[in-house]
Each structure stands twice: as structure tokens, then as C-alpha cells.
Design goal:
With about 325 residues, this protein is α/β, with parallel strands linked by helices. Helices cover about 40% and strands about 15% of the residues. It binds pyridoxal-5'-phosphate (PLP). Pyridoxal-5'-phosphate binds near residues 49, 50, 156, 182 and 190.
Length: about 325
């Protein structure tokens, strides 16, 4: 086999929209995974990781003062790197436990909905681990049609699902919007910076225009590797190698959640993502203070407040350590309580 470093084309710039073979590979994946047809020429574009797509889509469509509907707690880039850096106005959609961490669309004022230009939505969700039903996704699409806003469906955890749960895409209900996904979580390739955006041609063209003035495409050899990985999909189900590493996270989830609950916490097992979102287990419910306590014993977690004000009272664990280390963390947590 020839080493990829010896192939001259791998040294070239890639177009910021990505190579044709990559976009074709993504289109094929959408067909197999979701039974959706996208034109690789016009309806798919490459991004240097989902984060770049999340931020640059706002550059393409948000003008000063435009309203952007942002989930809170949420991936901080929606409010900050995307909306505020474009001089847009984030409108916070609280994600509350009593609503299964889904935004309550009915409480958003009609005036805001009429003015909103764009909504970020992310299920399976970071940081809450929540999932969205098809009924909910259909309802959001109905709202977008009534009030005419773009939905950016940020779906990087689509394959990071447990217990036979298969995550849907919002694009199943309308291809008037876009979805962002990436190889970061799907193939555990966070450092390789390769993602894609699929959906409505007008929105994709807007993103491509902006990107052509900002970056060049993800390295060609990485696009080749990701395309090869996507080829392993033969149905909507995960291929074996993806299944096998997701299983590792599922076991870690079980050990951590069972362990926390043995300590008296009330923590639920998420159906997706590698995050455990749980209430601060004391009366004060100050996520930063509790995080500091755990950091003092060498257990690193993220305070809920880091994901916005509606994250206060919660903390997030990431299942990125081995079972042995998780068991050790549980012992240290027990001492702190
Ligand atoms: C909700 C969400 N969106 C987007 C991203 C960006 O991922 P990447 O840029 O690695 O594709 C992340 C990463 O943690 C995330 O949690």
C-alpha cells in the first residue's frame, strides 16, 4: 500500500467546499443512513469540524440585531462564537428537566418567532444527553414554516447512541433546513477537523460563499479517511467498528451512573452522547463550587453554569476515561460527600 504522505495530491489545497469524492460519500451516507437524497454538487459542503460550521453559518445569515434562537444550557458556540460575534441577539430557549430538556416552543413570544432568523437545535444533546422524538422535530419544523426561520440541526452525536436507539435527523421532516455532522464523535477523530453540512441548497450556498473567504478545505487525506469510514455503513445501523467503540462508552455510562446512584444521587442513564448530566447533589446547587470540590480531589467535571444560566444546579461528567479510572473517581467522590 502506498503511504498517503507519498501521494502528491494530498499535499494540495482542498476547496473549502470539500472534494467531490467526499461530498459524494456524504450523500451516499445520507441515503443509506436516513434514506434522504442530497445532490453532492449543491446540497453538501465540507467543514473543518462541526464547530466551524456552527459559527460560519451565522456569518452567512445573521446581520446586526438579528434574533437567533439558542438552547440553554447548550453548546456555547451557538450564543457566543456564532450569534454574538455576528452582532446578532441570542434569544434563550431554556432546556428544563420537566420538559425532557427540550425547548418549550409555546412560551416563545409570537413577536420573537416572527423576527427570528435562525434556530440552533442539537439532539442528541450536549450537555444534557437528552434525545428528541420525531414528533418534537416535526413540531419544530412546523414552527419554522409558520414563522420562516432557518433551523441549524447540530447532530454530531447522531451515532453515539446506546441500547439500540437510532437517532433521527430533523431533515427527515423537511430539507428546507441544514444539518451539521462531523467525524469527531462518529469516528473518534476530534483532532482531524472534518465535518459536513447537508440540506437546503440556498443555505449551503451561503455557507460556501462565506467559507471561500475564510478557509480552505480540510486536508484531502483526512477527507479520504472519513469517506472510507462512511462507506462502512450498509444500513441505518452502525457498522461493527462504530458499534464496538460506542459499546465501550455504554459500559462506562453504566458504571458511572450505577456508582453515583449507589452514593445516593438520582442520575439517569442517557440514551445517547458521552455525557452524564446530573443535579448537583447538595442543597446549595452551586455547580461551580461543587466542581471545585471535585477538582480538589482530582476529578474533573464541567459545571452546568458553563453551558448557560439554565445549566446552573447541574454538573456534566464526560465518559472519556477508562472504567478503572471511573471507579477510582467514584471512590474519590464518596470521600468528598
Ligand atoms: C453540540 C456540539 N456541536 C458541535 C461540536 C463540535 O464538534 P467538532 O467541531 O469537533 O465537529 C461539539 C463538540 O463537542 C458539540 O458538542
Amino acid at each position: 500500500m502506498i503511504s498517503q504522505s507519498k501521494i502528491p495530491e494530498n499535499q494540495n489545497y482542498s476547496s473549502s467546499m470539500g472534494e467531490g469524492f467526499f461530498r459524494e460519500g456524504v450523500a451516499r451516507w445520507y441515503k443509506i443512513r436516513y434514506n434522504l437524497d442530497f445532490n453532492a454538487e449543491t446540497e453538501i459542503t465540507n467543514v473543518c469540524g462541526g464547530k466551524e460550521g456552527v459559527a460560519n453559518i451565522a456569518r452567512a445569515f445573521i446581520n446586526s440585531g438579528d434574533i437567533v434562537l439558542c438552547p440553554n444550557p447548550g453548546y456555547p458556540v451557538y450564543e457566543n462564537g456564532a450569534t454574538k460575534l455576528c452582532d446578532g441577539k441570542p434569544y434563550i430557549m431554556p432546556l428544563k428537566k420537566e420538559n425532557d430538556f427540550l425547548p418549550d416552543l409555546e412560551i416563545i413570544e409570537t413577536d420573537i418567532l416572527k423576527k427570528a432568523k435562525l434556530m440552533y437545535l442539537n439532539y442528541p444533546n450536549n450537555p444534557t444527553g437528552a434525545i428528541a422524538s420525531k414528533d418534537f422535530l416535526k413540531k419544530v419544523v412546523d414552527y419554522s414554516e409558520d414563522y420562516n426561520f432557518i433551523i441549524v440541526y447540530d447532530n454530531p452525536y447522531s451515532e453515539f447512541t446506546f441500547d439500540d436507539y437510532i437517532a433521527p435527523t430533523l431533515l427527515e421532516f423537511s430539507t428546507n433546513h441544514i444539518e451539521i455532522n462531523s467525524a469527531s464523535k462518529l469516528f473518534c477523530m476530534t483532532g482531524f477537523r472534518c465535518g459536513w453540512v447537508a440540506g437546503n441548497e440556498y443555505i449551503i450556498q451561503g455557507l460556501r460563499k462565506i467559507k471561500s473567504q475564510i478557509d480552505s478545505g480540510c486536508p484531502i487525506f483526512i477527507q479520504k479517511a472519513v469517506t472510507r469510514g462512511l462507506e462502512e455503513y450498509k444500513s441505518e445501523k452502525k457498522p461493527e467498528f462504530v458499534k464496538s467503540f460506542v459499546k465501550i462508552y455504554e459500559k462506562r455510562r453504566d458504571v458511572l451512573v450505577n456508582g453515583l446512584n449507589k452514593l445516593g444521587w438520582k442520575t439517569e442513564k442517557p440514551k445517547a452522547t458521552f455525557y452524564i448530566w446530573t443535579e448537583v447533589p447538595d442543597d446549595i446547587k452551586n455547580s461551580m463550587e461543587f466542581t471545585k470540590k471535585l477538582i480538589n480531589v482530582g476529578v474533573i467535571i464541567t459545571p452546568g453554569i458553563g453551558f448557560g444560566k439554565y445549566g446552573e444546579g447541574y454538573i456534566r461528567f464526560a465518559l472519556t476515561q477508562s472504567i478503572e479510572r471511573i471507579e477510582e473517581a467514584l471512590q474519590r467522590i464518596e470521600k468528598v460527600l
